[in-house]
Structure formats: C-alpha cells, structure tokens
Amino acid sequence: MGPPKVKNVESAVMAKGEAKPIAATTAKSGAKSRPLTRIQREKQDIILEAALDVFSMHGFRGSTIDQIAEVAGMSKPNLLYYFPRKEEIHRRLISALLVTWLAPLREMDAAGDPFPEIRSYIRRKLEMARDFPRESRLFANEMLQGAPRIIEMIEVDLKNLVDEKADVLLTWMDQGKIARTDPYHLIFSIWATTQHYADFDVQVRAVLGPARGGEGRFEDAARYLEHLFLYGLTPRQPVTVK
Amino acid sequence: MGPPKVKNVESAVMAKGEAKPIAATTAKSGAKSRPLTRIQREKQDIILEAALDVFSMHGFRGSTIDQIAEVAGMSKPNLLYYFPRKEEIHRRLISALLVTWLAPLREMDAAGDPFPEIRSYIRRKLEMARDFPRESRLFANEMLQGAPRIIEMIEVDLKNLVDEKADVLLTWMDQGKIARTDPYHLIFSIWATTQHYADFDVQVRAVLGPARGGEGRFEDAARYLEHLFLYGLTPRQPVTVK
DNA sequence: CTAACATTTTTCCAACTGGTCAAAATTCTT
DNA sequence: AAGAATTTTGACCAGTTGGAAAAATGTTAG
To answer: Which residues bind DNA (chains A, B) (predicted)?
Structure first.
C-alpha cells in the first residue's frame, strides 16, 4: 500500500456564465458556455482544495467563506467570483466525492472469487481512508447532520448500488462460499471499520501512542481487519463457546 | 434489548456564584456555593438537553446559542443567565459524555469468560448507539474536528483504559481463549461497527429502506455483529480459502 | 497595440453572532 | 404580606457572516 496522494478534488469541468458571474454548476437553458480559462480552472481547484480542508473539519455551517478564502490564499470577494454561493462549493465537493467514494464497492465483482473480492474491497476502502481522510470526514460530517444535501443520492444511487452488491453477497452465501449472514450489515461493518481510521484519526493516534500510531497503523489495521472478516466469513460449523 | 430512554444528560450538580451570575462550572477559590435552586436544576437540564440536540447535529462552531435557546424554549439572554458561555455548555456535555461512554469498556472483566465478556461489550455499545445516538454524534463531531476540547482526556484517560483492556485481551490470547490479533484494532473495530448505527443512522435507514430500516435494524445488527466477531475470534486453524 | 473580456480589489450592507446590562417580573423566605 | 433573592425580559453592542456592486487592474485575441 503505497500512498498515491492524489490532488485535484474534481476534474469534471463546468460551464461558465455570460459576462460577469461564472454560471452555476448546472448548465441549464441555452446559456452559451465558454470553456473555462486557465485561471478559472486553476483557481477553482485551489478553492475546492481549501474548501475540502475547511468543510471536512467544521461541517457546512461551521465553516466560513472567509476561512476558505484564507486557506485558498485569496480574498473573499475574489473567491465569490468563482463560486457565487457557499452552498455551491459544498455541493461540488460532495457530488465529486460520492463518485469516488463508491468506486471500490462498484468494483466488487460477482464473477470473482468471494474472499479475494471482499478482501480487496476492504483493502481499497482502507487505502481511501488513509489517502483521502478529508473526503471521508466531509462525508461523515454530512451524515452527522442528517445528510440534508445528499439524502436523495443516498436513497437512490447508494441504495441501488448496495442492493445490487447485497445480492451478489447473497449469491455467494447460497453457493456456500461465504458464511450466511446479513449482507447489508456486512457492508455497513466494512464501511464502519475502514472509515473509522479517517474519521476518528485523532483518537486512533492518541490511543495507539507515538510508538504504534505512526504510518504503520494502516498496515496493522489491514492485517487485523483481514483476519476479522476472513475468519468471520469462513463457512464452517460454529465452534462450541464456553 | 428494551429501550430505556434515559433523560437527564448530566446529574452532577455544580456550584452557583454569589449574586447575579451563576458561577462557572469549576468551583474555584473560596466562592461560597449555595446549592442549586429547583429552577436552576430544571433549567440547566432543559438547556443541556436542547444543546445536545443542536451540538450533536451541527458541531460546536455550527451551533448557535439562539438555536439552543429556541429548542430549550427560552430567550437567549435567559439561557446565558444559566450558562454564561457557549463553551461552558459544550464542555459540560462532553465531560458528562465521556464517563457514560467508557462505562461499557470499563466493565469488561478480565476474570470473566472472554466470549461472553466481548459479546456483552458489543451488545452494550450497540444499545448505547440505539439509546443515545445524540451523545454518539456529539462525540463523533468532536473527533472530526480534531477533538480540540478533549484531546487531553483522550490521550490520558481513554488511552489508559484502552491500554488496560488491551492487556486483558492479550492475556486471553496468550491463554488460547481467543484468536491472536491486534487488541487495539479489535477495540477500534467494536467502536466503529457499533457507533456507526448512531453516527450514520440516516445512511443506514436509507439503504435498508422502509422494510428493514425500522426498529428491528438494531436486532439485525446485533445478530450480525455477534456472528462477525464470534467466528472471527474463535481460535482455530485457518481454513483454506480458495 | 488595443479593445474586449477576465480577474481582483475596495467599499459596503443587512442579517446574524456571542454576549452585556439594567429594569421588570417572579419566586422564596420569614 | 413584605423584603430579599432569583429569574426573565428587552434593548443594546461590537464583531462576524454571506454576499452585492462597482471600480480598478490584468490578460489576450486579433
């Protein structure tokens, strides 16, 4: 697991308005949308980067445009030139996030072998927790607030994806390839255990202490989680427990 | 698992100042502290209740005194009569929380049988996620923000407790009573999987849908988690996995 | 080089923020 | 019931917030 450290929060390019203000993300109507200038592309990226920093720590309401502008190294009105609304920045981050975030689950292949598939799903999720902790926290923050801005996406896109993958898991269970348990809660537990290392990072570090809280903690976590899920999923007769 | 639905966020009584303002929580110096009046006790509880609602959703920075006052059904100045500082309310909630929150782990007894002990720890944590979701979210919010207000408690009290319990787990592993894995990450995974049902409640409900997302979801979760951890911890030879 | 456009800065605003204060209203004690 | 203490209210304040407007400055295609 080598840290890729990708930047660019979002590369999908958006439309630009007519004269002064850069149009809202959704290119509605027949608004002729000129391609973004170099400066626009650069500055939008810088702003989104800065906003990710701030929003992921303080949530939407707890973050201010001033803060974001400062991190981005520009003045507030200047920032507002690129994103006329605070909400707009947040929405861009969130929607870019959801795509990335669900990619690993999407990759879980019904045609593959169950254990390798599940194991590599866990591994990928853990890598994301390590390499994109801010994205994880942004998502967590949104959840804590009741997901006001993404509830529909959760209820539709996410739900559909999970339904589909739960079916895959069920098939594997039917074939006796993995233990029979609740596929939904299985997915939840993978999310929970992996994202924990991003969302509760402070706690994890503090508890592990300087000796074990270094970068190695992700290796340890990967090893542990593999063991937990592997032996918890191996089909066999229950062992007698005193 | 019957829902207890306890109220009273905090029962620990605090000192009151001389004439006008109710003294800060910390009863320092020789400030003669009259016992709290009935009204003071009642109103403080109402305020803390309301503050828990608000802080747990929006975090410290994202919450306003006005908001809390409105939920509490009183005017802002009136609220400030009881808690002169916004931080004071938050601190009271957090410190009351930490005690409650760690109780289940504290109860894990080295003298007991490993599996029953671990199983009932998981069960208790899950019950807390079900019965005190706001407390869970308050904690999560604080973590996401880097735990600025409780980092010392995490680094000292929490760390010590976890160190102690990790030792207990290690002993059990040495005795061959549970599988040998990383005890710290084991504890993390219990925290993560159980608290997930409070912190990501919206997501869990949305994904499970109306049919399975009702109150029964905690039963299902309990069953699933028991299976996951039980078979994941049963000491035995690794099964060959294709 | 320059007009047309893009970007940045300056100034400003109304609403909201945490918090103060004195006066008014209520409750408690005797 | 009266006086003292407690509780509540209304008016107010300085700093912050999201955002508007326009002037000033830069950039670039022809």
So the answer is: 64-83
- Is B219 in CB contact (< 8 Å) with chain A? no
The answer to whether the CB atoms of B209 and A242 lie below 8 A apart is no
ipTM value > 0.95: no
Q: Which residues on chain B are in Cβ contact (under 8 Å) with A137?
A: 144
Could you please state the CATH topology (level 3) that the domain comprising B93-233 is classified under.
Tetracycline Repressor; domain 2 (1.10.357)
Nearest nt (C1') to B37 (CA)?
Answer: D6
DSSP E strand stretches across A98-169: none
d(CA B128, CA B136): 8
Q: Kindly determine whether residue B227 and residue A189, on different chains, have CB atoms separated by under 8 Å.
A: no
In the 1-60 segment of chain A, residues within 7 Å (Cβ) of strand D are: 37-39
User: What DSSP string describes B196-211?
Assistant: HHHHTHHHHHHHHHHH
Non-local (6+) Cβ contacts of B34 within 8 A are: B16
- Smallest CA–C1' separation from A22, nucleotide: C6
- CA–CA separation, B207 and A47 (whole Å): 32
CB atoms within 10 A of CB A88: 17
Name the protein residue, with chain letter, whose CA is nearest the C1' of D12: B77
Q: pLDDT, tens digit, for every residue of A99-158? A: 999 999 999 999 999 999 999 999 999 999 999 999 999 999 999 999 998 999 999 999
Q: Does B212 touch chain A (CB under 8 A)?
A: yes
What's domain A90-233's superfamily in CATH?
Answer: Tetracycline Repressor, domain 2 (1.10.357.10)
The 10s digit of each residue's pLDDT in B68-99 is 999 999 999 999 999 999 999 999 999 999 99
